Amino acid sequence: MTTIESTTSADRLTFFVDGQWTKPHGTEVHEAIEAATGEVIGTAALADEHDIDRAVRAARNALDSGPWGRTTPTERAAVMRRFATALAKRSAEASTLVSRENGMPIGLSEAFNGGAPAGLLEMYAQMIDGTEIESVRPAALGATIVRREPVGVVAAITPWNYPLALAMSKIAPALAMGCTIVLKPSPDTALDSYIFADAAEEAGLPAGVLNIVLAGREAGAALVSHPGVDKVAFTGSTEAGRIIGAECGRLIRRCTLELGGKSASIFLEDGDISAFQAGLSATSFQNNSQTCTTQSRILAPRSRYDEVVDAVASYAAGLVVGNPLDPAVTCGPMANDRQLQRVLGYIEAGRDSDARLVAGGGRPSTVGDRGWFVEPTVFADVDNNNVIAREEIFGPVMAVIPFDSEEEAIRIANDSNYGLAGSVWTADEDRGIDIGRRIRTGTFGVNYYSTDLAAPFGGMKDSGIGREFGPEALENYTEYKSVYVSADRLQS
Ligand code: NAD
């Protein structure tokens, strides 16, 4: 078991480029600060444009001239399985490090940063093992060979909230299709992604297939625009997604955008309040609510309104706030000071509005002065036009909104710029599924919510473009080519 005492710190002052640990061209470094203590736990080099250029060239070269571009799906599956084995050995290191960096409760980190990356590699290896990249079909004048080719060099740009699972949601399908990758993680989780490099080295990934360079926004923008990049796979804020999407549009560059959310959880008058309350850990408070699918709008029928408000308020008040490495802790700190100030700002906005504060509302007194902690906070009687119901807060601040009818609940749930997730709580599953069909979000849960990594995941409206996870994600990394040939090919 991971303990607070067993953790180690590490510096990462080189980048992983072309299979080697390379010295930075730039001189900028970033201090990684532990979210729960405010202590420096390591230092990492930040890439400049030259470093980005070197990484993209390595990826380009590995694709165009290296052995990777000529591998079969079965050969790639074997490499991916070795990579998964090497990563699995490092799962405790990965989950502990991420919890220290971003405040994620350790049990959740073990699942998403410890287990999921190796699991995703195994899943995509299984999908491509033994498959053919060409198929032949009849055509008017003969036959057509349809080829599935790699999309090319992939720029994977990731956020800090689920850093390793989200990075692997891009890397694994990209590797499966034969792409090469430059991963640019967020400086807010500066250290953990290099665990991928350690494992890639051990697994013998060919040089240049996976390159990892930590960089800020400016160098990240240089990666997006680099002429050697064929596709950008981005997860992050809607604000950054707009800029990246616009640049990719200008360059006619393929891109997928996994962005923010402001999802709704709808409790119907026939719902089971205990199941709903137990589900709050996944729907609304997972990872200290620093989760894109957080259902921070809770829609309650007037007939059971007080019951729902009490259930959410008492759940929030009962969360154990503290060091995320302590397995008893259910709400860790915010990932950084910027994030804490943002969340406190929204709490102030809620206090200044007509909404009624029913839980939390500030900084907790129980955890001392250190760390970026905030009290799990609930406002009731919130109007859906209130800023705390419209904007993504990315922290544990919930808005309970009353409704009079099922139609009104659906209208309020859909009255959002975002469209990422949601859930409904009802004794009638058919009714819940029907409501799910009418909610404009990429995922939806009936009486529970749990991201299924084997099914497509992504957003509608301002929550993004494209889908990750599941076999559907392979499409993101595939170019189709049709070669017109004679009918002779149909026989073979
Ligand atoms: P962010 O947009 O600030 O940063 C995300 C990444 O993009 C970082 O690596 C950052 O350095 C980089 N970046 C920012 N601007 C860039 C630019 N112009 N060019 C290139 N790179 C740039 O987001 P964040 O604060 O790290 O993450 C939180 C956000 O991510 C939230 O809005 C959350 O909802 C979203 N998110 C979405 C999903 C999803 O699957 N839809 C999953 C997790 C997080």
Q: Mind sketching the topology for me?
A:
Layout: E1 15-17, E2 20-22, E3 29-33, E4 40-45, H1 49-64, H2 73-88, H3 91-102, H4 106-128, E5 134-139, E6 142-150, E7 153-157, H5 163-176, E8 180-184, H6 194-203, E9 210-212, H7 217-225, E10 231-235, H8 238-251, E11 254-258, E12 264-267, H9 273-283, E13 297-301, H10 305-318, H11 337-351, E14 356-359, E15 377-380, H12 387-390, E16 397-403, H13 406-414, E17 418-419, E18 422-425, H14 429-438, E19 445-446, E20 460-461, E21 464-465, E22 478-485
Parallel strand pairs: 7-8, 7-10, 8-9, 10-11, 12-13, 12-18, 13-16, 15-16, 18-19
Antiparallel strand pairs: 1-2, 3-4, 5-6, 6-22, 11-21, 14-15, 17-20
Helix pairs in contact: 1-7, 2-4, 2-6, 3-4, 4-5, 9-10
This protein binds nicotinamide-adenine-dinucleotide.
**How much helicity do the residues have?**
25-40%
The first-to-last residue Cα distance is 56 Å
Say how many strands there are.
22
CATH architecture identity of the largest domain: 3-Layer(aba) Sandwich
Kindly describe this structure:
The protein is α/β, with parallel strands linked by helices. It has two domains: 15-259 and 463-482, Aldehyde Dehydrogenase, Chain A, domain 1 (3-Layer(aba) Sandwich); 264-452, Aldehyde Dehydrogenase, Chain A, domain 2 (3-Layer(aba) Sandwich), CATH 3.40.309.10. Helix content is 36%, strand content 20%. The protein has helices spanning 49-64, 73-88, 91-102, 106-128, 163-176, 194-203, 217-225, 238-251, 273-283, 305-318, 337-351, 387-390, 406-414, 429-438; strands at residues 15-17, 20-22, 29-33, 40-45, 134-139, 142-150, 153-157, 180-184, 210-212, 231-235, 254-258, 264-267, 297-301, 356-359, 377-380, 397-403, 418-419, 422-425, 445-446, 460-461, 464-465, 478-485. It has a seven-stranded mixed sheet with strand order 14-15-16-13-12-18-19, sandwiched between helices. A six-stranded mixed sheet has the order 9-8-7-10-11-21, with helices on both faces. Strands 5-6-22 form a three-stranded antiparallel sheet, with no helix packed on it. α1 (49-64) packs parallel to α7. The N and C termini lie far apart (56 Å). The structure holds nicotinamide-adenine-dinucleotide (NAD).
